[in-house]
Give the backbone structure.
Amino acid sequence: MSTTARPLEGKTVIDLTTALSGPYATLLLAGLGARVIKVENPTRGGDSSRNNSPYVTREGLSVLRTSDEDMSVSMMLRGRNKESVTLNMKHPEARQVFLDLVANADIVVENYSAGVTSRLGIDYESVRHLNPALVYTSISGFGAQGGAGTGKAMDTIIQALSGVMMTAGKPGDGPVRFGLPIGDLVAPLFGVIGTLAAVLQAERTGEGQHVDVSMLGALTSLVACEPFDAFEKIGLPLRTGDYVPRLAPFGTFATSDGWFALCAPTDEFARGVMTALGTPELVDDERFARRDGRVANADTLHAMIAQWAQHLTTADATARLEAAGVPAAPVRSTAEAVRDPLVRERGEVVQLAHPNFGVQEELFGAGLPMRLSASDTSLNEPAPGLGEHTETVLRSLLGYADEQIARLRDTGAL
């Protein structure tokens, strides 16, 4: 089948986002084929990600910016397949340019703090009359309604409030902050799902709508996917460290040269564990033959596996478990994980390219982790320079004359 078509081809997105949560949402839309026009503030140097160390320079990676050509790795990753225009949204003439962009777009995505877009006069209620089918997506920390204590949100703040920090670690440990910014990354996934659903409805009814996603709500909803309240009521520990007793044998185990993960909650998998350990006589032991017995004797079972594993290499331990039909895998470093030939072949992780210096051989970034049988979903265009497409967009999309663009630039609107 042909893979030249792109699912969102013909759709135009006005991207008012900055940092991570919003730009990741628009990156996904760009990978699906939408034309994403990134609006950046020229008075602040554009998207805050442009000033995230490290930078790619002509000589390679650097903690410090060395020239105007240098680009942050963050922007190289999040800015792919996007066009950049500069607009000073506090300038009255810039607001009119924005309204003209909205009138010619299908989707707007913003991640300002609650209340900012209304103060600027660019919120959904202020622009919906220009484009009845417009889908306007807001990704914020606490929801577009705002309220007391709902100011600027950072990922760690959202992790703290969602309860997710108290789902990892051992009982009695302090809170565990996830190294991956999961609050920043979960919200845009729901933002894209809501946006695409609203676009489908707009195509059917001719009416757009406001899609409102909060980082706190998105992450807390995932915490609520596990019945932690029920665990607590029946006395099961919420935090279980390296192991999960209610699914025993289940967890991560140290070897002589690393760690591996083991997941064997079923009777069949548990029998495989006994075989791998060289203790087949325990298959029929009432402590381990059925799940309830394994849960009741989880400490004993996990201690047996730990004792066995510490004398083996990770490769040897996982090979023995896999040979016995048990789900097991080494715990890899991030560097090892992003270089996995499988995820690279599938385009789920790709090499990053600087717009001027080309591909950086040892620098990898997220691809689009979905494959469509008849569609292209690649992120193959490098991130743009700040304002690189301003004049092109104003001419081609809005029909502005050169004199009008020059005047807007002279007045500080662009």
